[in-house]
Amino acid sequence: MSEDASAKKEIAAVKGTRDILPGEVEKWQALEGLARATFELYGFRELRAPVFENTELFEKGTGATSDVVTKEMYTFTDKGGRSLTLRPEYTPSVVRAIIEHRLDLEGAPMRYYYMGPMFRYDKPQKGRYRQFHQVDIEVFGEKDAAVDAEIIEMAHALLGKLGVKATETLVNSVGCRACRPAYSAALRVAAGKRKAELCVDCQRKAETNPLRIFDCKVEACREVARSFPSIQDFLCDECRAHFQELRACLDVLKIRYRVDPRLVRGLDYYTKTTFEIVSSGLGAQNALLGGGRYDDMMKDFGGPDICGTGFAMGIERVLSVAELAPPQKKILYIAYLGDEAKREALELARFFRSNGIECLVEYKDRGMKAHFGRANKLQAAWVLIIGENELKSGRFGLKDMASGRQLEGTRDDLLATLLES
Ligand code: HAM
């Protein structure tokens, strides 16, 4: 490789990460704005936690047998010798923050949302990145399945505002600590019978946590997993009643769904409800969002015994199927000739911006023709002209670029015109 080429490679974005540039970022902003507005309607407030945490938080929370923890974490030792991890998901961080700040004692609804980057070391492909972004919501302290139904409905409301069509909602119950051991035992037996057909990883999972075989992407393992018993046949009375209530609540909200007994989700903490909303417009990575209930995490962290439920939506995946039209900008371009007019342009731009007009001046020595060429290129809605005469009279020319109409007036006259347009 030439010196030039290797220098270029060194400064390129890291594999699995990407820049979000102007032109695309407006869609991100629109999504973030709609997400905030939607969540606030349901009583959620933003909670911002750090990008990295003690590794142990995810080992304990996300789960030591999950693929995320065993294969995908960005873990490093810092200069103080601590093992830290770039968060692969957000849920354990929220639970930690609640315990640390005793948010449960505040009396406010324990409903939190957040948007930001997450990090997982997996093979990058369409819809799968190493730095990706999630919109995450979590609710604490409400056991009733009605709240699970409500957040699924909230997800639908948001996807609707984002213009996402052709989705399918999958729901399941993964039971609880009372009923899951019997299911895991049955899975272990079923997996044991077909061990030879499983990949090495799944042979290990058959011993450690057979539920995790459902997460395997190897087709042969998926085929074997299709023959496994269904968790629906192992639910205890409490979990069965909870799942029935979830279904009844989804019916009330007119949310169409399909029960998928294989939907165990890739993280170890789920209890009872699990759900995903998938898109038919995406390839292999078709989950737009996923979530569920995790009633034991807080007490397992040594905090109060408070249940939780929530979901996270992948921003990249949602944007790839969203139909968003960010608002058209109306830019006022100020064209000036000469040094004195430049200073007037500086002040006029301040004046218009302080009155809410988006205004652009480029401080470059240009002739009038070049100014208009540039304004056209930037798709400016208006051009304001400052030359010698305008400086003397305090009256400026304003051209409407779409119609070609020319106006003239003081800065206050022109402001009135701009605000009306
Ligand atoms: P998750 O299913 O691991 O759940 O991730 C949620 C969503 O994040 C996925 O449905 C997908 O849209 C997106 N996503 C995940 N990994 C990637 C990736 N490598 N590249 C692009 N997008 C990705 C969780 O993270 C749980 N914390 C959700 C939750 C919240 N459960 C309860 N509360």
- Could you name the ranges where pLDDT drops below 50 across 5 or more consecutive residues? none
* Proportion in β-strands: 15-25%
**Main pleated sheet:** 8 strands, mixed
Q: What's the arrangement of strands in the largest beta sheet?
A: 1-5-6-11-10-9-7-8
Each distinct ligand: histidyl-adenosine monophosphate
- Determine Rg (CA atoms, Å): 28 Å
Give an overview of the whole structure.
40% of the residues lie in helices and 20% in strands. It has 421 residues and is α+β, with helices and mostly antiparallel strands. Strands 1-5-6-11-10-9-7-8 form an 8-stranded mixed beta sheet. Helix 2 packs antiparallel against helix 6 (145-161). The model has no long low-confidence stretch (mean pLDDT 95). It binds histidyl-adenosine monophosphate. Histidyl-adenosine monophosphate (HAM) is lined by residues 89-91, 120, 122, 127-129, 132, 134, 136, 138, 266-267, 287-292, 310-312, 314, 316-317. Histidyl-adenosine monophosphate binds at residues 89-91, 120, 122, 127-129, 132, 134, 136, 138, 266-267, 287-292, 310-312, 314, 316-317.
